[in-house]
């Protein structure tokens, strides 16, 4: 396999493009929170405190706080060591968000089917498969390459083996 050389202009372009897409997502998330804040205060904050309410608030505001914080940190200059740590923290925060969203979706489906044991077992099996695939992809691959450039924030490039375990699927390529 040949090594890909990246020049400064390409790195700056990719860094800016990455931040633009990230900014778009964060702005839409904040916009959604502002649009629904009045209804949320009226219907959510004034009701009795239940586990469902606590879960709703955790999922909703964990994502907001994590994304706004990580986006704000992308404009600060850090050393390579701090960039590596922040990259790990960001990946953990994203994984926790995905876990909370997946749990919420599973609970919604279970509620629709009155917590039927058959549906519960199918969803539990699917969750176990997804978790195993996540662990297989994350643990067996090399970590992303984190760069500290003259640009603000950190920039990481994930190798192809991080996304697709291509070494295991070489026989599918024709």
Automatic annotation (TrEMBL):
DUF6533 domain residues: 20-64
A Pfam family annotated for this UniProt entry: DUF6533
Keywords from the UniProt entry: Membrane, Transmembrane, Transmembrane helix
Keyword DNA repair appears in the UniProt entry: no
Ranges that cross the membrane: 20-37, 58-80, 92-110, 122-139
Keyword Transmembrane helix in annotation: yes
UniProt name for this protein: DUF6533 domain-containing protein
């Amino acid at each position: 396999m040949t090594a890909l050389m990246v020049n400064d202009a390409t790195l700056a372009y990719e860094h800016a493009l990455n931040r633009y897409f990230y900014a778009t997502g964060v702005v839409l998330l904040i916009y959604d929170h502002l649009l629904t804040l009045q209804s949320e205060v009226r219907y959510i904050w004034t009701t009795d405190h239940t586990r469902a309410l606590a879960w709703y608030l955790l999922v909703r505001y964990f994502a907001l706080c994590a994304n706004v914080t990580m986006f704000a940190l992308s404009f600060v200059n850090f050393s390579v060591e701090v960039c590596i740590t922040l990259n790990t923290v960001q990946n953990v925060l994203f994984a926790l968000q995905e876990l909370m969203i997946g749990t919420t979706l599973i609970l919604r489906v279970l509620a629709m089917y009155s917590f039927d044991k058959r549906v519960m077992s199918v969803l539990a099996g699917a969750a176990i498969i997804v978790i195993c695939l996540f662990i297989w992809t994350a643990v067996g691959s090399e970590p992303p390459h984190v760069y500290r450039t003259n640009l603000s924030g950190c920039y990481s490039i994930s190798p192809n083996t991080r996304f697709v375990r291509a070494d295991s699927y070489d026989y599918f390529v024709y």
